[in-house]
Specification:
Chain A: This is BMP family ABC transporter substrate-binding protein. The complex is a heterodimer. Chain A is of the alpha/beta class. Helices cover 39% and strands 18% of the residues of chain A. Chain A contains eleven helices and twelve strands. The longest helix of chain A has 17 residues. Chain A is globular and about 60 Å long. Chain B is an all-alpha fold. Classes of the chains: A alpha/beta, B mainly alpha.
Chain lengths: 359, 305
């Protein structure tokens, strides 16, 4: 509670500070709402890299502003509105929890365009964008199954939302394609970012016999714990190899720059439309970090899988997908699960021993 | 048995920063000063502690940097609340917000760097005793330091004259003043001690726990330390129980999840808070009953000149 209050206070302070940004005529003003501090890696850092790419690409034609450390939920509404009042015409709200506040502000200011990351609510002036990270997780699952000696993977989850659940499922489907008996232990830390807690979770997983650490949280702590114990791990969002030079197998890298550039270009050309973008390896919405710390044959397999997914020849959720209860999941997308089924995924696939929280 | 040992080792590490920060705050509050800036002092301690260790290559230097940084932060607080008699709650909150910002600034150049963690002790013979060896003799020095510190604080508060005077300042500063004790100077020393402990607690995170610095890495531990002091009803013994209980339930719920117990994780994550609050409330009800807060806690003292 105290922390939330404090975060709100910090957001207010930050929101207050942008009133001082000088008004410049003609330039397109582009605003960003960041969840965390920028730092040097992680979710927010990757968005910041894309913002820097925008500045490099468009130079004097645009002016960018960002607010960092904005807590999710109703509090963020004020921060978004501040960006509108400061004259920003295109605003990127870069986390799922900004969905409803963004929609509310979008309805209030129909002449401003909004881009919301990873959400599902849209309006005529509000687009959504996300990446098909599950494709990367499928590749990671295959690598993990090849590299695990114990046959037990340790998975650190943040919150049991569909994006994280579909990541776990994709990992398991990939792993099962190599080793049908692979096991996964899942620990939910109920936070996106708490290095100490993430490290504790990684230690608990290793203590319980897992020998590969996979994370869906933001700090390099799990990677570092794996490195310290001489085990292997996958990074998240960013390159984390310096925290585990001998531990990182690969990492899913968020690369937002191509998308941000195309949207700003559309805004400058006057062709911006509300859209729903869900890009994968083919459109470079994310990339895989170099495959390291694995034998050549595993590396070759990973590269082949990546190429097959990129070319559309392999779909991680190809039918039949069997749920935890042993029943086949209805196949709404032809030969694979429909996008809606993946985006709203609230079940585990067969082979996951865990019980989904809240089910 | 190996798993039990691993769990206890994790619990010791997870509880230590809480215990350190709470020990400092307990002394501060016993002197009658409520410093809500623990989180801010901790995070600055973390940034400076990491910076010191990274630049010098020495964990000890890092720990000292963390302590000094925490003390400097608390000096700001002391100047505002004791010197200028500003409201303590507002100043403490401001100190935390300031600390979070400042630590980002200080730590910016260290983000992404890494150091080696504080070495675990190794006493020939003793550290190899099965089960208890590594727990009693094989953790990093901070763990034992934090325990020694709380014992020292207990002894100081209840067994020395100076401790009695400090408690008097916290219970009735007017009487203490009338008896001729320098209330403001005593409170100042207590605030500095609190800052030193918070700084060390913050430094523990990058030096021994996760050996890198990231903005916001204290993740609310300062607030938990504050709450522990209240629920321990300002007593050192209960503080130890509270800190270790909180750490234990935190780690155990992670293990329970990994083992697939099937209880909703949201509930499990709330468990450390629930368990600690319930146990400490029961403890304080059973013996004394009623509030045991220092009577003058949070009140401003302006000596008549």
């Amino acid at each position: 509670m105290m922390k939330r209050l404090l975060g709100a206070a910090a957001a207010l302070l930050l929101a207050g500070s942008i009133a001082g940004v000088a008004h410049a005529a003609d330039k397109l003003k582009v605003g960003f709402i960041y969840l965390g501090p920028i730092g040097d890696l992680g979710w927010t850092y990757q968005h910041e890299l894309a913002r820097q790419a925008l500045v490099k690409e468009f130079g004097d034609k645009i002016e960018t502003t960002y607010l960092e450390n904005v807590p999710e939920g109703p509090d963020s509404e004020r921060a978004i509105e501040q960006l509108v009042r400061a004259g920003n015409k295109l605003i990127f709200t870069t986390s799922f929890g900004y969905m409803d506040p963004t929609l509310k502000v979008a309805k209030k200011y129909p002449n401003v365009h909004f881009e919301h990351a990873t959400g599902y609510k849209r309006d005529k002036n509000m687009s959504t964008y996300s990446a098909r990270w599950y494709q990367g997780r499928y590749i990671q699952g295959q690598i993990a199954a090849k590299m695990s000696k114990a046959g037990v993977l340790g998975y650190i989850g943040s919150f049991p939302i569909p994006e994280v659940v579909s990541g776990i499922n994709a990992t398991m489907l990939g792993a099962q394609s190599i080793n049908p008996n692979i096991k996964v232990k899942i620990i939910w830390v109920n936070t996106w970012f708490d290095p100490g807690k993430e490290a504790d979770a990684a230690k608990a997983l290793l203590d319980q016999g897992a020998d590969i650490i996979m994370q869906h949280t933001d700090s390099p702590a799990p990677m570092q714990v794996a490195a310290e114990r001489g085990k292997l791990a996958f990074g998240q969002d960013s390159e984390m190899i310096k925290f585990g030079p001998k531990a990182q197998l690969t990492s899913i890298l968020d690369t937002w720059a191509p998308y941000y550039i195309s949207r700003v270009k559309a805004e400058l050309d006057g062709t911006w439309k509300s859209e729903d973008t869900w890009g994968g390896l083919d459109s470079k919405m994310f990339e895989m970090a170099p495959y390291t710390n694995m034998p050549d044959d595993v590396k070759k397999m990973a590269e082949e899988t990546q190429a097959a997914i990129t070319a559309g020849k392999l779909h991680p959720f190809k039918c039949p997908v069997v749920g935890q209860d042993g029943k086949e999941v209805e196949c709404k997308g032809g030969d694979h699960l429909a996008d809606g089924q993946i985006l709203g995924m609230n079940f585990y696939v067969k082979g996951v021993d865990d019980k989904l929280p809240g089910k | 048995m190996v798993l039990v040992e691993a769990i206890i080792l994790s619990v010791l590490a997870a509880s230590t920063p809480l215990l350190l920060a709470a020990t400092g705050e307990l002394v501060t509050e016993r002197a009658g000063v409520l410093n809500l800036g623990v989180e801010g002092m901790m995070i600055v301690g973390a940034a400076c502690g990491f910076g010191g260790a990274w630049l010098s290559g020495s964990i000890v230097v890092g720990a000292l940097c963390g302590i000094i940084a925490g003390m400097l932060m608390s000096l700001i607080f002391a100047f505002m609340t004791l010197g200028l008699a500003v409201n303590q709650v507002a100043t403490g909150l401001a100190l935390t917000i300031f600390g979070i910002g400042l630590s980002g600034l200080i730590g910016a150049r260290f983000v992404g760097e890494r150091i080696n963690t504080a070495p675990h002790l190794s006493v020939p013979g003793l550290s190899d005793i099965p089960l208890v060896g590594r727990i009693l003799f094989g953790e990093d020095a901070f763990v034992y330091l934090s325990l020694a510190l709380i014992v020292a604080v207990w002894w100081f508060l209840y067994r020395t004259r100076a401790g009695l005077v400090l408690r008097a300042c916290g219970d009735n500063h007017i009487s203490a003043h009338a008896l001729g004790y320098p209330v403001l100077r005593i409170r100042m020393l207590a605030v500095l001690f609190g800052g030193a402990c918070a700084g060390l607690a913050g430094a523990y995170l990058p030096l021994a726990y996760t050996p890198f610095f990231i903005p916001g890495m204290t993740a609310g531990r300062g607030w938990i330390a504050l709450a522990l002091v209240v629920f321990a009803s300002w007593r050192p013994g209960r503080l130890v129980i509270g800190a270790y209980l909180f750490g234990a339930v935190t780690i155990l719920q992670l293990h329970a999840q990994g083992a697939g117990v099937g209880i909703p994780s949201q509930f499990m994550s709330a468990l450390p808070y629930l368990a600690t609050v319930i146990v400490l409330v029961l403890l304080s009800r059973a013996r004394t009953g009623g509030s045991t807060a220092p009577a003058a806690l949070g009140t401003v003292f302006v000596p008549d000149r």
